[in-house]
Amino acid sequence: MDFNIIRCARAILHVTDLDASRKFYVDALGFIETESDAEHIYLRGLEEHTHHSLVLKKAEKPCVETLGYKVQSNADLEALSLLFEEEGHQTKWLENGEQHAIGRALRVQDISGLPLEFFADIEPAERLLQRYDLYKGSRMQRIDHFNCSVSDVERASAFYQEKLGFACSEYTDTSDGDIWAAWLHRKQTVHDQAFMNGVGPRLHHIGFWLPDPLAIIHTCDVLASMGYGNSIERGPGRHGLSNAFFLYLRDPDGHRIELYNGDYLTSDPDFKPIRWDINDPMRQTFWGHAAPDCWFNEASAVMDVLTGEEVEQKPGKLKQHKPTFVI
Amino acid sequence: MDFNIIRCARAILHVTDLDASRKFYVDALGFIETESDAEHIYLRGLEEHTHHSLVLKKAEKPCVETLGYKVQSNADLEALSLLFEEEGHQTKWLENGEQHAIGRALRVQDISGLPLEFFADIEPAERLLQRYDLYKGSRMQRIDHFNCSVSDVERASAFYQEKLGFACSEYTDTSDGDIWAAWLHRKQTVHDQAFMNGVGPRLHHIGFWLPDPLAIIHTCDVLASMGYGNSIERGPGRHGLSNAFFLYLRDPDGHRIELYNGDYLTSDPDFKPIRWDINDPMRQTFWGHAAPDCWFNEASAVMDVLTGEEVEQKPGKLKQHKPTFVI
Amino acid sequence: MDFNIIRCARAILHVTDLDASRKFYVDALGFIETESDAEHIYLRGLEEHTHHSLVLKKAEKPCVETLGYKVQSNADLEALSLLFEEEGHQTKWLENGEQHAIGRALRVQDISGLPLEFFADIEPAERLLQRYDLYKGSRMQRIDHFNCSVSDVERASAFYQEKLGFACSEYTDTSDGDIWAAWLHRKQTVHDQAFMNGVGPRLHHIGFWLPDPLAIIHTCDVLASMGYGNSIERGPGRHGLSNAFFLYLRDPDGHRIELYNGDYLTSDPDFKPIRWDINDPMRQTFWGHAAPDCWFNEASAVMDVLTGEEVEQKPGKLKQHKPTFVI
Amino acid sequence: MDFNIIRCARAILHVTDLDASRKFYVDALGFIETESDAEHIYLRGLEEHTHHSLVLKKAEKPCVETLGYKVQSNADLEALSLLFEEEGHQTKWLENGEQHAIGRALRVQDISGLPLEFFADIEPAERLLQRYDLYKGSRMQRIDHFNCSVSDVERASAFYQEKLGFACSEYTDTSDGDIWAAWLHRKQTVHDQAFMNGVGPRLHHIGFWLPDPLAIIHTCDVLASMGYGNSIERGPGRHGLSNAFFLYLRDPDGHRIELYNGDYLTSDPDFKPIRWDINDPMRQTFWGHAAPDCWFNEASAVMDVLTGEEVEQKPGKLKQHKPTFVI
After folding, report:
1. Which residue from D141, B239, A188, B320 is spatially nearest to C129, judged by alpha carbons?
2. Across the B/C interface, how many CB contacts are shorter than 8 Å?
């Protein structure tokens, strides 16, 4: 490949009330507000040396504008543009200066209809990792991954592995041998990008990395004491898949985020992807807890990179079912 | 009062398979096995300087033989015997030597039909608090409390406060002002004894104290890795009531235990009992999670101190309902 | 005894710069500031339901004005007054209204010259235990104990046990069988009051209770990030004696405080006090770390309850030496 | 470059008593013993999917036989051989089958005289990450880094960056602008390899990754309870440099290991290496604690890859001094 995708790097979420979002992300969860204006809030984690990893953008209704990946250099953007055009995907350039704090960017509608973005340059920001006096709420450290619901996981994950250079760490298959879900990475963690079979293209959640398990418990306590008990959708628990200690939250617009700690290093080319059977009760929650229906059914719509309209959704190719052990 | 009840101190549970129980309590949860014979396993926590706090006794079917309280001295037993007889309760003496590792003991059927026991003397055992090399599983430190389902909470908790000298730390009442549940203590923690309205007399659970919140998370991980995922009934979570970080487990016979950390000191006579409304969603789980039906409906039968038969159960006096927020 | 001392309850420390003290205790350590005026700052922990447990009082030079114990009722104050007068100690009454937020109080110079205070009434304050949104810094929960350097530990600890009703949980003795240090309690923790052989009467430190071990590590991180690295005098570490995970800090005036988690329940009358040999390297720090000289040599002067002057100090009766393993 | 070094992967340490080593590494620290024979113990961490990351080899005296790096493929070995030969370094091939569980390996004496090894193939082993029932002691997860004392840090770190493709995450320089120490990585953590100015070539320590900060505290408790208090050389503490929470131990032969948690992701090519001034008191220990002299002065000798003799040592090029703040 003539390009090097570094990692999942930022998302732009449309939200309906910036003040409500700020209260949730900044006051409760302790995200750092790098900057904001009447239309945007730019957020980052304590470990991040870049301007932001999450943009909240004022809009009429909630939607995902883009899922952004950092690449090695601007030259990589040209190579990626060529690849996506050859594959018949729509692309769009946002030149340097068109987006705040971000250099030249390539947006594409990917094979599942997800609105990706690639960029090499982002403004630096002071890294606050050792400003422990500023730690609060969840002590969020950095963005970790995107998890998307798509109608054809096998096709999506083949494209990411074969064309974009992602590696697979873990996957779920059905008794028929179909790929139900796949965890793919560029950086050396369990994933930058996960795909799950379902109505799509939709963003299921964005994962953020926390420093230790107690930070997740404290997040629950802080949310509850601020009246955000209803925002806690699932967890805390241990994922079988990825081994992470997790918590799923719904933000004021219903966007789902995962707070996450405890996966493992995926540096080795000879690491064998770990297979999970869809009916293994320890796959989703290692301890055997079932996830609530809303966790399976609800997710955020995504935007067409050219028209700005919501992308039409198709059902999952595999029969939509929760694992049988849940029934 | 002419006696001084120190604390909840031990329970005797009838179990149907000692080996299965040992695997659960000793191998998985890390209870210390002080001693055992063909009919009994005697268990204690790492902090305990006494022979045991839990006796598992081989029997045909699961049952609670007794809930034992330690008192200041043997003279207190006479005073307690007098009190219970005056109040019309059945009592029974077990003389020194009749029970292994326990001195003279008074057993009584309390006002709700619960099989209590009082004793002053128990054999000492090596305290293993600083034998960190022996820590495993849940790192259980000490017995903390009994929680019982009784048909008339108001009457039971009045007796414990007025006649036995317990203090109330927290309680739940209904919109009609009826006491739904009460947390009562002798030692300076939130409780030695809790009562909840329901079918009774039954033991809902025995609470054990852990050293820190991560020990609870590790317990889940260990249980799951040993195939005990189904034993995890509820949690981990934070109780609104008591503020404890908790986990509820069902042992191989269905007896429920709670692993528990993070309540507070209740030394002060001017501490005002904390009132919770039964419909406050933060009361049971501060984070708003609902408890499963089995947690509400299932509990262990208790034994008649004289006949050895199971005590007949009556429904809760207050209309049995889960809090409305759960519906 | 005709009185019931409940627990160590508050201290008044003279400090030279209230703003510097507030920055340390409130901004860095997260103590709750209940109230303040030009001369005082009243602080409490997140668990405390009473107005304050620490008063910082503006003065020309640092000193300890009083170490306060809560008693069961005002009648107990009369009984205590009688006892101390019979024993030949100076006493002084501060009537209701003379001290802010505190009812009638008895002050006495104790057998070692320490300025004690007893009171039954203190204004209530909102308990913030479940206001997790206010947790910061050390997440301090409650005052735990006083540790004092006195010239005759044996005499002091005999008085506290025989006349005041304290129980001994642990103690250190020398190879000659002399008591080098003693840990005494009224509430059911390892101590309310410790005595160590040394130049006295002086306050060595006040202990405050934290919710878990990670709170101690986070305190170090926060202090360092705010430029308070020099305030960390000793630790974090595990005490052999008491089993607590500890951190010793020096406030801006040099008063020493201990942040503390992980001792054990001392409810049982038949608990045998634990003996430590002064030369056991695990006694002070279970892991074997030596304490710095300043920790052994420096402590806060105390005030005469009648004259308001600093109490004259005498050397420790036992030969002042650090444990031999440190040499 | 025509090769891809993946990560630091294993070390072979010569030890004088395998039983003493096993007691320390396996019984106390909880390393997994994959296999052993009369001359070797092969150890791995709970996260590792490869046969071992540490080999303890019976020998007359303690020494470091080799520091091993995993590379992408066997073809990389040829390219590395070429590079080192061109640069005038001695190399030695160990063919497939010559070393247990390891494929073809290239050994070289690096620019500082350190005995490196490169290999692509290592036997797989069951990954025990989710066998929480086997967790004990330190719960060691995986090997993290090598830290070596060398006489010319600037030269060594230039070679690793320019010829071997390492990136620098953090470094220390003196007031004269000389590089005192450098932290270099291939995998996306703070380091695989650190160099510090000093008598060299020597191995200062091997770093191992733990799952959370409490695992480090528990390690101290377990070591102390097993009589290994003297093995704790420094910490626990927070490094300024790397931000890791650390503990330094000396094994029974004096080899130093670091238990380590809490550094950060180093995936980004535009991450600016962090500069620390040698006299910054927060560099070594963020909280300001000084390291003991032995930590500065003592380290393990290394072996000549051809002769098997100890490599002669030279003093550090920069004047050997501890940071001035320590004086």
Report:
1. B239
2. 72
